[in-house]
Amino acid sequence: MPVPPPPPPSLPARLYLLAWDAGRGRPAGGAHLHHLVRAGALTELAQRGLLADEDGIVTPADADARTGDRALDGLLELVAESRPRTWKSWVSLRARVTLAEVREQLTADGWLRPRRRRILGLFPKAGFEPVRTDAVAVLRADVRDVLTGPVPTAEVPKDGAALVALVAAAELRTVVSGRERRRHKERIEALAERAGAAGPALRQVIGEVRALAIVAATSGGG
């Protein structure tokens, strides 16, 4: 039996994999997937204590710190080299750079492989696809278990709580439907509090992801 790939190296990488829509052969949430992935990177860095909140401004806790993950380290460098900005600004600013770095990391780790597909059956377009769709399905099932399972929110790991809070805010249909979001609204809010217990950063990030998802949906991009 083949050995499964290693766990995704980061929270934004897991968000990218969770967005994969096997029926359509591409990630869902195309209009704002980069925002969701960037939000995941901000969240992980905040949870690791590598980004701090100073009166609503994102601040590197250690300008020389590195994680070994190209997307997370790239964002740390970008924040350190830029003028002070809010969490809301960083969800969007150059977010496609983080998305590209996440894809590169997943490809290097054996989770993704390049592929070419055709738009309207005519126009070639480069893309990526999961190497192991069954492993992605297990990841998705684990996230849904956190959403619907009996484990008290206080016992859910903070990164798992953040995954649920972010996919719900982004209205990521590959993981949770609108009906399920409404049914589990209180649980989602409790998980968001669990994920962001260290400070207000995640609340601001989730709020911006939710706002961008609404804009994308109303403009026909979701």
UniProtKB/TrEMBL annotation:
GO molecular function (one): phosphatidylinositol-4-phosphate binding
Q: How does it sit in the membrane?
A: Peripheral membrane protein
Compartment(s) where it occurs, according to its Swiss-Prot or TrEMBL record: Golgi apparatus membrane
Coiled coil start-end: none
Q: Which UniProt keywords apply?
A: Golgi apparatus, Lipid-binding, Membrane
Record-linked InterPro entries: GPP34-like (IPR008628), GPP34-like_sf (IPR038261)
Concerning Pfam families, the annotation shows: GPP34
**Protein name in UniProt:** GPP34 family phosphoprotein
